Amino acid sequence: MSQRHVLITGAGSGIGAGIARDLAANGEQITVTDLSREALDNTVTAIRKEGGEVEALPLDVASDESVNAALDALDRPVDVLVNNAGLQHVAALAEFPMDKWDQLIQIMLVGAARVTRAVLPGMQERDFGRIINIGSIHSLVASPYKSAYVAAKHGLLGLSKVVALETAKSDITINTICPTYVKTPLVEQQIEDQARSHGIPKSRVVDEIMLKPMPKGVFISFEELAGICRFLMGPAARNITGQTITVDGGWTVT
């Protein structure tokens, strides 16, 4: 295909914004969505300044009404969906507010299923679609104090496998990219939470908690994730579906 229409959730900042900027720079038509209109405006301004084509829509992935309204507002069908919306809360399960636990699951797992369900009929009608879930190293392993996040990210792998089977007769693929830590506002916010939960100074969190399990010992970049998205969107990946793309600097090698 030539120019594709890519819808990215949670694109007001962090990974979503980074992927949006990269794909726009490579000629794709981008629709960025987020709960925060102000954050979306920042992403749109950056993309347009770099010469990219982008539109923005407010979207709450935890709401059927919001998802339907956003899709109705689009001026062309979605060719590629990037399920990226997410948040974090760090606490022991005994101290984890259950409304917050439910919120994480609703946004990162149920929300991904909700938006995927909404775009699938159009993809099936046109016999083309690429769905990319942004998972995490925590789709594969666990860390203490992240029960809701780990549960949601593990669930994405199961969702991806089921949808891969249900769409196997069409030129539709769905895969989950699982990176270790990416230097985003979400990760920056975790440093203080991790320090408190582990009882160590903030200065030790990055080296002793975040990067210690990675033999390569470096943060993952937006460019790496966007490059994997471009590959999964392309013809060389048409038979890659239901797969877990692990970007972990060697974390899970042993």
UniProtKB/TrEMBL annotation:
Enzyme class: oxidoreductase
An example Gene Ontology molecular-function term: 3-hydroxybutyrate dehydrogenase activity
PROSITE patterns: ADH_SHORT
Swiss-Prot/TrEMBL keywords: Oxidoreductase
EC number: 1.1.1.30
Domain of life: Bacteria
Gene3D superfamilies for the chain: NAD(P)-binding Rossmann-like Domain (3.40.50.720)
Listed SUPFAM superfamilies: NAD(P)-binding Rossmann-fold domains (SSF51735)
Family, per entry: Belongs to the short-chain dehydrogenases/reductases (SDR) family.
Official protein name in the record: 3-hydroxybutyrate dehydrogenase
The organism of origin for this protein: Natronospira proteinivora
